[in-house]
What does this fold into?
Amino acid sequence: MTDQTLTPAAFAERLGANADLVGGTLERMLGAQTLPGEISRPARLLEAMRYAALEGGKRLRPFLTLEAARLFGVEGEGVLRAAAAVEMLHCYSLAHDDLPAMDDDDLRRGRPTLHKAFDEATAILAGDALLTYAFDALADPATHADGAVRAELCLGLARASGLGGMAGGQALDLAAESVGRPLPQIAIERLQAMKTGALLRFAVEAGAIVAGASQADRLALAAYGKALGAAFQIADDILDAEGDDATLGKRAGKDAGRNKATLVGALGIIGARRLLGKFVEQAEAALAPFGARADVLIAAARFTASRDR
Amino acid sequence: MTDQTLTPAAFAERLGANADLVGGTLERMLGAQTLPGEISRPARLLEAMRYAALEGGKRLRPFLTLEAARLFGVEGEGVLRAAAAVEMLHCYSLAHDDLPAMDDDDLRRGRPTLHKAFDEATAILAGDALLTYAFDALADPATHADGAVRAELCLGLARASGLGGMAGGQALDLAAESVGRPLPQIAIERLQAMKTGALLRFAVEAGAIVAGASQADRLALAAYGKALGAAFQIADDILDAEGDDATLGKRAGKDAGRNKATLVGALGIIGARRLLGKFVEQAEAALAPFGARADVLIAAARFTASRDR
It folds into this structure.
């Protein structure tokens, strides 16, 4: 494999190529054409969903889905649909997190947030509809011929993103802000594992599920996804503490101003960087069984840790 | 079958018995115990989900699921879980529709709405988590041994409740309010078929899917569900125009005050009552193939049309 020496530039190119593929899939799914069982697609709601899902973003989650499946030689429409479903789930969560009653953000990826570009009601509904569409995409026979695989994808996404995962993590995050005193490290790590880790982990697992990977391979990839998710969130905390608005495309320094539960707050920048390094090592170690085939995923973990926005 | 002469009192008893069964299932699902893949269940978010899902309501949708399955002799945990999933989806939609940015309601089923009892952020998240949990419940092997059936349930729920169904209908409803002039009847009927009809129809179909009904039987039940959904919404419009706060458990007369798209507005009360009668007849006609076995479902259509709240 020539991937063994994947340079940052080569990784960026691969990230971009996957993003284009997923963008094309999302573009097709979010077209005006109704699917069987749909009565009509209201234009403004669809436009809001497209605004939330089609523009910008690194597409890290679908990248992980696509590359996890490629480990087992699987590519094509089915895994692209699964990747697009994970991205729709992610985009719904951004739209709802940005709402005035939640994080109250005006700017996202350098553009007005969804409720600023449209209105609050439309942002709530577009988020709801993207969340729902993610399950639609996974449950549709176009994603996989085997119904058991489709149901497993739906169940995995639900567990990663609901009460015991992402939505629960966001609830804990909002609660931590209002308490006004810092959480202990272990509580922050659990909060972050729920809020961002669970979906990143599922993004990896989804590729393995679609590809029909063995249980052992799935466990290895889940361990990788878990470590990568932890690394991602620490890197995010460090970026917020050190970045500026222009490179972030959103307001910097807002975590400290709001008493957000972050590992930079709990450990300081140096402690946070050390922990970040530990999680990247864990992510790489989990991929050992795959040898050089997994170099793209190793590069993804390093990219996650060192990204500047 | 003794159901042939189902009196209103006997129907009410059966509705209550089913509601108790579904309530018990929801109570178990919304307990503190985590499921595999869940990291933790944050107490306040869970409490809000329980507030939204466990109290009150006629439980009409899960009633339809349970009774549709009973047509084919199927009862038990699997269909109860499917019925509970439909109810969670319904409760999420109420929580989000009540939000200040949407219908801005303070009262629901005679109690403070979710965002009044908790806060807006929690109401948004609890709705998101109930929506997600509905798919969790359907995709879980505890609902049906056959993965293809579970995936079909997920797909049906998604199509009924997303962009091309309920969420889309709510978007059209909000848009109609802001236009300020009445919609033509055909547009109102489509809006209502999306906003409330699609989920009522799926509630019926879900029972048939779990029970493994034939394609012909499923089509008959889908036609019944569609007509019942249309009847339900007209009855709702009539209730709003004629009812009072105390019997409704929410503010009456608000549709007219807000320029809501209703069939009472388009047709007048007499015209609306006539159309209601037509849809009830359609619902009954669709059940003809099942003979006296379907008397409970016929009673449900009549109940839907004549209910006083």
